[in-house]
Amino acid sequence: MFSAERFRSLLAERGISQSELARRVGISQTAVNKLATGGAYGTKHIHLIARALRTSPSFLLGETDDPSPDAPIIEPERPVQFVTMQVALPSEDALAAMFRAMLRILPENATEDERAQILARRLPAALSQLRDLAP
Q1: 18-65 pLDDT per residue, tens
Q2: Number of alpha carbons in the 13 Å side-chain half-sphere of residue 61
Q3: What InterPro entries does the database record attribute to this sequence (predicted)?
Q4: Whole-angstrom distance, CA of residue 57 vs CA of residue 44
Q5: What's the predicted TM-score (pTM) here?
């Protein structure tokens, strides 16, 4: 989300008025004021604004704490979520049949990693087609 506080700080540090920035970017001074006061959550002109303020869109959006124009984006850590649910598994024979069918469709020349990726991608569909789900 656009950071009005960072925006105002950069305007002051760079000595650029809202009117001057509006002129450089080609937007109204009212639009710049809305960004500076938090009355707007973003703008399609973020790249032009960042260039005029000699920073990066990532800094203005709070994706990095480095105001330099070429600052790398630091991905936020996503917390792991644990979910507990009951699952009714099919019989061992039904699972074995499903796995045999899945193994038959694997390309012979695929690497182990490629085969694992194919199996992982197809497992949900294969499980959903099993009919023997009685516990």
Answers
A1: 999 999 999 999 999 999 998 877 788 888 999 999 999 888 888 888
A2: 20
A3: Cro/C1-type_HTH (IPR001387), Lambda_DNA-bd_dom_sf (IPR010982)
A4: 11
A5: 0.53
